Amino acid sequence: MTMTAEELEREHKKDLQRLRNFRLLDDDFMTKVFEGVPQYIQLVLRIILQMPDLNVIEVRTQVFVENLLKRSVRLDIVAVDGAGRMFNIEIQRSDEGADPRRARYNSSVMDAYLLLRKGTKFYELPEAWVIFITEKDVLGDGQPVYKVERCIEGSGKKFNDGSHILYVNGTYRGDDDLGKLMHDFSCTNPDDMYYEVLADRARYFKESKEGIEIMCKAMEDMRAETLEVGIKQGEERNKKAVALRMLKAGKYSTDEIADMSGLSITEVQDLIVAATA
Question: Which pLDDT value is given to residue 160?
Answer without folding.
Answer: 92
